[in-house]
Structure prediction request, 86 residues.
Amino acid sequence: MTALDLARRHIGRLSEHLRGVRYQLIGIQASIPPTRQETSPEDLESDPDAPTEIRSILANAVQDSLDPLIRDLETAAGYEPRAGEE
Prediction:
């Protein structure tokens, strides 16, 4: 097994671990019930309360950071060099 094969295998395991972290964060977000501020149109313009802010932070972290990272790592783990490369 080459160094590249080992690296890809390790990257694959890390992406699996991060996918588990992703599901944990989504579970935490789902465990915080939406507050009136999130469900009431007249409350949408006020400063967010703590539950709304935490739910928003978790959603943004997963969507903006973790999902792209996992996707990129999975691409790297599955990368196959062109013939003659390596």
Remarks:
- The chain has one domain: 3-38+47-77.
- Residues 3-38+47-77 form one domain.
- The CA atoms of residues 16 and 38 lie 32 Å apart.
- The mean pLDDT is 90.
